[in-house]
């Protein structure tokens, strides 16, 4: 036998696809490098520079070359506990409960790798949870939420799901709050209600709160407060600290779930070893959450609020349905209003709609549909509002001061590329689709 | 039902242990912090500082905050290809074949996650391969090598293994060359012979060459040269560039194994996303492999040669058997000579022997036995020769210049802690074990 390397892959991974958001971003990055003008409303990456004190700290620690403790250096884990005490009023966290890794995505993945049971996901949901379940061979149950419920999980939906499915005794719910792709958050009341249902059924919650500190009015609520014994809190630096490329995330496990934490830590020791050492030392500066860091955060999130609110308003003006976002970069508009005109052009899926928009006007949106666990013939799209020069906008916001609210003029002047993208989108639709 | 979180773990992970090397290192780090004097001959982490030009580059790129292409930035992948052209005479590498990740360990793990077939390991072997196979649910076949063969895989051993085991049609061999834990390397002749057996059976090779650039005489040979179509070459910055804590590794896939590379890239996009951005930019400086970088490498590896050779000589002087290392930090001495005296004290395993040595003399060695896939009653131990101030030694070596060979006096003066550890080890043995 010579060189027969066919079928070396796990058969169930034959059509395994890379993360659609990262791939689309690479494609657009290359087009732009080649000189093309593209309105990139498809990728959720912070437009802002990293807080200056943190880059200085990284510089100071550039020579750190040792393998660090698998779960992260003690001072970093302590600062993460202090941070959640300040921001979420979680009082009793112990650094021992924290596992730091190269991004929260990696940590969710390792949790799934060691977890024994079924996984409950919402629809719509972030594009990576399901492929992670696929890679780790989990049975997944998808719970379809509705725009009327602002895409939230309700106790009724959860109860119905449990009643109508024959599930493993162990269940892990992945809850994204604030949500990607919808920008929706849960209220205290909603979380309390959910908690009692989750507690009743002994369901473990992975609460992905990566957008928590980008809540527009800094009023994020965590389910860890109401369901502490069953909640694994997951977050990182990618969003509020604009440090996606730094790759630093963490999970905080309740003591009740120590066996899971220990197994994840073991798996971590055999996979990523530790998060990058210079990055860990620099991250302490951010989690110390000084007044200056908090001010940085406040400026970033109010700029996002301004541009998010503007985008929402413009979409609604032409009959597009969309839930008002309260955090983060994303909205999930539904272009059902265009169905008739699109159908005349032979366009019946959100993928086709997004392709047409990209071909005709170089406005990139991420199609809803299966990637977000939505039906293909639903005209939802994930729209990211962050295609602008964040450094420029941040400077302008600082100059105005936090007391002066940001106007639509600010959005036009400082978030121009997103502003223009929304405008171009409308003009194109109006031309191609006379009903708008 | 309330809060019943028992058995949330995969049943087969009930006794899943963290990487024994990392755990032992954490334990000793804590003892030292508490003021204890410990001779740490148990952990293989470069004692040298990172090349200055690379830390400067990291500083310059501290503000890089974007998610980068999943497989790494193009300039880094290009520099890795150029590097292997220079160092290994691998001429036709294409950046497309390279996947960069947060450490080579993570990349081996993801390869195992997507690979469909059995895994062939050697005994002794690095402590992490088997736990990775466990996590990814692979059947593992262990091939016991012998000290007579200098712990190398031979074509005969491979053929016998295939003949006497009923294996999956797909097989992946993990070959560590230069080897951890034995310091053994393969010659051109040996690799050619192995290649024809591997080719005959269509076996994929993961060639872990993380210690290649620490070959004492810079004469490393890679199997990728003789078996290009079936070899995945794996390496990183942890060893020769003293950047273990930076977390940057890579795999180079042959075009013939593109389906595996693509699946790993997809898995990467759903797990670590990309290696840390500032680290990636800084790494280019190292892979450009300037004269200055090469000189840095030459000084580091000749210091390791001096201290490795000294340690070997001292051990042999008291009848301990050990293969002369030709690369890296490790040797795998066998203390069989002590069996009788140890047995009088009730010590019959290498673990007990190492525990006694640690308790009585604070010399830490990693016991052989099951962690390295060796029998528990064999008195092999992994000894790392790098417990000294590498910055100090590097300066002294530079001052001497590369033309002046390093003497045993150099080892005594600049690698003092390892030197002392070896001496203390002997005195303790001599006292406790009159036969030595």
Automatic annotation (TrEMBL), chains A, B:
Q: By its UniProt entry, which SUPFAM superfamilies does this protein fall under?
A: PLP-dependent transferases
Kindly give the InterPro entries that the UniProt entry links to this protein.
Aminotransferase_I/II_large, AspAT/PAT-like, NHTrfase_class1_PyrdxlP-BS, PyrdxlP-dep_Trfase, PyrdxlP-dep_Trfase_major, PyrdxlP-dep_Trfase_small
PROSITE patterns under this entry? AA_TRANSFER_CLASS_1
A single GO molecular function, which one? pyridoxal phosphate binding
Domain Aminotransferase class I/classII large per the UniProt entry, residue ranges: 41-371
Q: Which cofactor does it need?
A: pyridoxal 5'-phosphate
Cite the CDD domains for this sequence: AAT_like
Keyword Transferase (UniProt)? yes
Q: Which residues form the signal peptide?
A: none
Which biological process annotations from GO are given for this protein? amino acid metabolic process
Q: Which UniProt keywords apply?
A: Aminotransferase, Pyridoxal phosphate, Transferase
The family this protein is said to belong to: Belongs to the class-I pyridoxal-phosphate-dependent aminotransferase family.
Q: What is this protein called?
A: Aspartate aminotransferase-like
Protein species of origin? Branchiostoma floridae (Florida lancelet)
| Encoding gene per record | LOC118403202
């Amino acid at each position: 036998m010579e060189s027969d390397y066919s079928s070396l892959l796990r058969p169930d991974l034959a059509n395994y696809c890379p993360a659609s958001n990262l791939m689309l971003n690479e494609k657009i990055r290359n087009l732009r490098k080649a000189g093309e003008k593209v309105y990139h409303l498809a990728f959720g990456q912070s437009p802002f520079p990293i807080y200056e004190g943190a880059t200085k700290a990284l510089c100071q620690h550039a020579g750190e070359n040792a393998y660090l403790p698998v779960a992260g250096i003690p001072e970093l884990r302590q600062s993460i506990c202090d941070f959640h005490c300040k921001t979420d009023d979680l009082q009793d966290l112990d650094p021992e409960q924290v596992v730091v890794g190269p991004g929260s995505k990696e940590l969710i993945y390792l949790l799934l790798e060691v977890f024994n049971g079924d996984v409950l996901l919402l629809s719509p949901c972030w594009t990576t949870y399901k492929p992670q379940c696929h890679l780790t061979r989990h049975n997944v149950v998808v719970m379809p939420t509705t725009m009327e419920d602002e895409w939230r999980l309700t106790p009724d939906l959860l109860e119905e799901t449990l009643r109508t499915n024959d599930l493993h005794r162990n269940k892990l719910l992945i809850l994204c709050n604030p949500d990607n792709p919808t920008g929706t958050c849960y209220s205290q009341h909603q979380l309390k209600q959910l908690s009692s249902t989750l507690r009743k059924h002994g369901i473990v919650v992975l609460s992905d709160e990566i957008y928590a500190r980008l809540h527009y009015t800094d009023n994020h609520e965590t389910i860890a407060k109401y369901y502490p014994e069953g909640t694994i809190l997951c977050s990182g630096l990618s969003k509020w600290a604009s440090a996606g490329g730094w790759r630093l995330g963490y999970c905080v496990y309740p003591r009740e779930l120590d066996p899971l934490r220990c197994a994840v830590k073991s798996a971590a020791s055999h996979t990523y070893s530790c998060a990058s050492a210079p990055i860990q030392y620099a991250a302490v500066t951010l989690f110390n959450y000084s007044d200056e860091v908090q001010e940085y955060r406040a400026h970033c999130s109010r700029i996002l609020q301004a541009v998010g609110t503007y985008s929402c308003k413009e979409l609604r003006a032409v009959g597009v349905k969309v839930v008002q976002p309260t955090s983060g970069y994303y909205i999930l508009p539904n272009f059902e209003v265009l169905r008739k005109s699109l159908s005349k052009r032979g366009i019946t899926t959100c993928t086709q709609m997004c392709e047409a928009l990209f071909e005709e006007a170089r406005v990139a949106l991420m199609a809803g549909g299966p990637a977000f666990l939505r039906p293909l013939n639903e005209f939802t799209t994930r729209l990211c509002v962050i295609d602008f020069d964040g450094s420029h906008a941040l400077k302008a916001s600082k100059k105005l001061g936090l007391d002066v609210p940001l106007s639509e003029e600010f959005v036009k002047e400082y978030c121009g590329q997103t502003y223009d993208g929304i405008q171009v989108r409308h003009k194109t639709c109006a031309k191609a689709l006379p009903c708008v």
